[in-house]
Amino acid sequence: MLTVYLTSYAFWLLLGLALLLSEFFIPAMVAVFFGIGALVVGLLTLFGVIDSLPYQLVLFALISVVALWYLRRHFNRWLRGSEVDLAARDQDDAGLLGVRVAVLTDFIDGIGHVQLNGAKWDAESNESLKAGDTAWVLNHSGIVLQVSAQRPEKS
User: What's the pTM?
Assistant: First the structure.
């Protein structure tokens, strides 16, 4: 009786859906590939391509491991991105380049503070900037802005 249920297409399709849904509750990017394997076995069983439990188990294991091995890397990059993707993107993700800032402190040895959007930022400049001056953001490195008294040209 149990063997009949395990070899039915409904079991494999339900198992595949349960595994896919479990990924929403415990995201580890593993269960989804076993879900894909179960769905493929369920569809192949539904269409009569395979019917015995040993073939179903072997095919389920093979499809799941192959999907896990080859597709996980692509799914992770697609869902989370990668460091390579970050480096290739526009460096002005925060919309900082070319923005006007107010100089809060005199720049000593090229280091000072500016105000941007109501917040105090650490800044660097090759120019001698004084408190009260206006400057523009040329670049940024994390939370440190590189500023200049000259407005950058738009490209």
Answer: 0.49
